[in-house]
Write a structure and sequence with these properties.
Layout lengths: L2 H15 L1 H26 L4 E7 L4 H16 L3 E5 L2 H10 L4 E5 L3 H6 L7 E4 L4 H31 L5 H14 L17 H17 L1 H13 L1 H7 L4 H31 L6 H25 L3 H19 L10 H6 L4 H12 L9 H22 L6
Parallel strand pairs: 1-2, 1-3
Antiparallel strand pairs: 3-4
Helix pairs in contact: 1-11, 2-8, 2-11, 6-7, 8-11, 8-12, 8-13, 8-15, 9-11, 9-12, 9-13, 11-12, 12-13, 12-15, 12-16, 13-15, 15-16
Length: about 400
C-alpha cells in the first residue's frame, strides 16, 4: 500500500475510535438541525387563511361574493371559509380562531343599486396582519367591481332611456362577472431558494464541516509534538506523502460527515437535496475548500491547542458571514457580496440552484468557485506545511 494511503488509513482508524470526532461530525450537527427545523419549520410552512363570512343580506349580490369570490379562494386552497353569524365570527377573530371575517350587512343589495355608498365590513385579527390585509384587498376589489357595474348601468341607462329592467340587470351582471376581484397567478421566482428544512440542514452541515476536516490536518501538529513525525521522516516516506495523507484524511472525514447528515435529514426531516450528481459535486468541492481553509490555519499554528482555537474562530466567523444561521440576503447587498469569500455561501448557493428540479449543470458555477478556493488555500497550506515535514 502506498505510504499516503497507509497514513490516511491509520488516521482514519484513530478517528473512528475517537468518540469526540463522531459527535462533532454527525451527532451535534444533526441534533441542531432537528432543533432548528422544530423551531422554524412550522413558521415557514404555508397555510390557508382562516376566514368567515356573515351573510345578513341573503340576495343574489351577496351570494356572488360569498359563493363566487370566497368560494374561488377555498377551491384553490388559499383560504378556508366558513359561514357563521356575526357574533360567532367576531368571537372567532377575537379568540384567534379566525384570521378575518367578512360581514355583508342587511340591505347590501339595495345599497348597491342606490346612488349612495354600500358597506362591506371586514373584521381582522391583530395577530394575523397578512391575512387581514388580504381580506381587505379582496373586499376593496369586489367593491370596485360593483362600482364598475354602477357606472355601466348608469351609462347604458343614459344612452338608452326606457331600457327594460331585465336588460339593465344583464349589463350589471356582465360587468360584475367580467372582472374577477381575486386573481391568482403562479410566477416562477428569479432566484431559487431552499425550503426551510433543507436550508438549515445544509447550512449547519457545512458549518460543522470546518470543524470536522480539522482532525486530519491538525494531527500533523500532534505527530510533531509526540515525536512520531521524526520517525516517519526517518522512514523511506517522502515528505509530500505525509502531507497528502493528512489532507486525504480530512477529505474522507468531510465527505462521510456531509453524506451522513444529508441522508439522515432527508429520511428523518424531509429535506430535499435535488439532483444527486449535482449534490455529489458540491459535497466534494465543498469538502476540498473546507480542508484547504483549515490547512492554512493549521500551518500557522505552533501547537494543536492554538490550531484548534484559531480554527474555531475562523469557522464561526465564516459560518456567520456565509449564511449558516440566516440567509445573508436579508442583511443587504454588501453582506451578500462579502459572503462570497466563504465556502458556505457557494455551497448553499449551489444547492439553491439545484432546488426546483435543476440538473447538475446548474451547480457547476458554485462547484468551480469552491474548487478554485480549494486550489488556492491548499497551495498555500502545502507550501507552508512543507517546511514542517522537510527532512
Amino acid at each position: 500500500m502506498h505510504p499516503t494511503l497507509q497514513i490516511a488509513a491509520k488516521d482514519l482508524r484513530q478517528r473512528v475510535r475517537d468518540r469526540s470526532a463522531f459527535l462533532l461530525a454527525i451527532v451535534v450537527p444533526f441534533v441542531l438541525i432537528a432543533i432548528f427545523n422544530l423551531l422554524f419549520g412550522p413558521a415557514s410552512t404555508p397555510r390557508a387563511f382562516e376566514y368567515a363570512v356573515v351573510d345578513q343580506d341573503h340576495t343574489a349580490v351577496s351570494r356572488t361574493f360569498t359563493v363566487d369570490v370566497l368560494g374561488a379562494l377555498a377551491d384553490q386552497g388559499v383560504a378556508e371559509v366558513s359561514e357563521l353569524d356575526e357574533d360567532e365570527a367576531r368571537a372567532g377573530v377575537r379568540d384567534g380562531d379566525l384570521d378575518a371575517a367578512f360581514v355583508v350587512p342587511s340591505g347590501f343589495a339595495d345599497d348597491v343599486a342606490s346612488p349612495g355608498p354600500a358597506e362591506l365590513l371586514v373584521v381582522g385579527s391583530a395577530d394575523a396582519p397578512t391575512a387581514t390585509v388580504a381580506a381587505r384587498s379582496i373586499a376593496r376589489s369586489y367593491a370596485g367591481n360593483l362600482d364598475a357595474a354602477r357606472v355601466a348601468v348608469a351609462a347604458v341607462g343614459a344612452a338608452r332611456p326606457g331600457l327594460a329592467p331585465a336588460e339593465i340587470e344583464r349589463v350589471a351582471q356582465e360587468t360584475v362577472h367580467g372582472a374577477s376581484p381575486v386573481a391568482l397567478e403562479d410566477i416562477s421566482a428569479t432566484t431559487r431558494v431552499l425550503d426551510t428544512k433543507t436550508y438549515f440542514a445544509a447550512a449547519l452541515a457545512v458549518f460543522f464541516l470546518l470543524f470536522t476536516v480539522q482532525f486530519g490536518v491538525s494531527s500533523l501538529i500532534d505527530e510533531r509534538g509526540g515525536g512520531t513525525l521524526v520517525r516517519m521522516l526517518a522512514a523511506p516516506v517522502p515528505p509530500w506523502a505525509i502531507l497528502v495523507g493528512k489532507l486525504l484524511t480530512s477529505v474522507v472525514l468531510g465527505i462521510v460527515s456531509l453524506t451522513v447528515l444529508m441522508v439522515l435529514s432527508a429520511l428523518m426531516l424531509g429535506a430535499e437535496w435535488g439532483d444527486p450528481l449535482g449534490v455529489a459535486l458540491l459535497v466534494v468541492a465543498g469538502v476540498l475548500a473546507a480542508t484547504g481553509i483549515t490547512s492554512v490555519v493549521a500551518s500557522l499554528a505552533r501547537t494543536s491547542e492554538q490550531a484548534g482555537t484559531w480554527q474555531a474562530v475562523i469557522a464561526v466567523s465564516l459560518g456567520l458571514l456565509g449564511g449558516s444561521f440566516f440567509p445573508v440576503q436579508q442583511a443587504g447587498d454588501l453582506v451578500a457580496g462579502l459572503s462570497l469569500v466563504t465556502p458556505h455561501a457557494w455551497f448553499l448557493g449551489g444547492l439553491g440552484d439545484l432546488a426546483g428540479g435543476g440538473g447538475a449543470i446548474e451547480a457547476l458555477p458554485s462547484v468551480a468557485a469552491l474548487l478554485a478556493m480549494a486550489a488556492v488555500t491548499m497551495g498555500v497550506a502545502l507550501r507552508r506545511t512543507g517546511r514542517v515535514v522537510a527532512p
